[in-house]
Amino acid sequence: MSAQQALAWGLVNRVVPGEGLLGEALAVARRLASGPGASYARAKELLNQSLWPGLETQLERERQFLMACAESRHFAERVRALTERRR
């Protein structure tokens, strides 16, 4: 399968020439590293757990994680930043 075909099928989200791969990978890594790490970890955990439970169990887990995120100081700061139109 070609890279372009993988992109068209949604198996990858971007295609980068070989010589630009390291720079692109580092840019993505920097963006992720500056993001909400706790939210990323919870999202990954939810994704991993979603392979086994039923819908009701998964929805309850998502509700619990959303509440935990909403109670964090990081969430409150991000909401303030959004309403103040700053990073």
Put the structure in a nutshell.
This protein is mostly helical and 87 residues long.
Percent of residues in beta strands: under 5%
Structural class: mainly alpha
C-alpha termini separation: 40 Å
Roughly what percent helix? 55-70%
Rounded mean pLDDT is: 89
The unreliable regions are: none
Number of strands: 0
Number of helices: 5
| Helix/strand order, N-terminal first | HHHHH
The value of Rg in angstroms is 18 Å
What is the overall silhouette? flat
The major beta sheet can be summarized as: none
Written account of the structure:
The chain has helices at residues 3-8, 21-33, 37-49, 55-70, 73-83. It is flat, with a radius of gyration of 18 Å. The longest helix is centred in the last third of the chain and has 16 residues, at 55-70. With 87 residues, it is mostly helical. It contains five helices and no strands. The mean pLDDT is 89.
